[in-house]
Write a structure and sequence with these properties.
alpha+beta, hypothetical protein PF0899 fold, three-stranded antiparallel sheet, 6 strands, binds zinc ion
Length: 113
């Protein structure tokens, strides 16, 4: 399961950070998840709760911030939010938008105690 592998990756980062800071536990993890990252947030939450059991990150709050899908038009240079997966530039109607954000998945910040 895709989300389970992601949850394990997040846990690794969280535990490593806690260790580096000589913290006893991980309190909070903030994630940035692009609209097009292909991640089911509810499923990820469930997996995160499962993999953190019995670790220093057990009970950590998982905050997920969605990043909108933004494309830039190579013809007119406009940056705009991609609506309903329509990649034709709504401004000049001739360029195909190139994705500049919305595919990311990363740990934005961590709080450890
Ligand atoms: Zn355009």
């Amino acid at each position: 399961m895709h989300e389970m592998a992601l949850a394990e990756g997040i846990l690794d980062i969280a535990l490593k950070t806690a260790e580096e800071n000589e913290a006893k536990r991980v309190a909070r993890v903030k994630l940035l998840v692009g609209e097009m990252a292909g991640v089911e947030c509810e499923s990820l939450r469930f997996c995160f709760a499962a993999v953190t059991k019995g670790t220093a990150a057990e009970g950590a709050e998982l905050e997920i911030e969605r990043v909108p899908l933004i494309g830039r038009c190579p013809l007119c240079g406009k940056e705009q939010q991609v609506e309903r997966y329509s990649f034709l530039c709504p401004s000049c109607r001739s360029g195909a938008l190139e994705i500049i954000s919305g595919r990311e998945l990363r740990v934005e910040s961590l709080e450890v105690d």
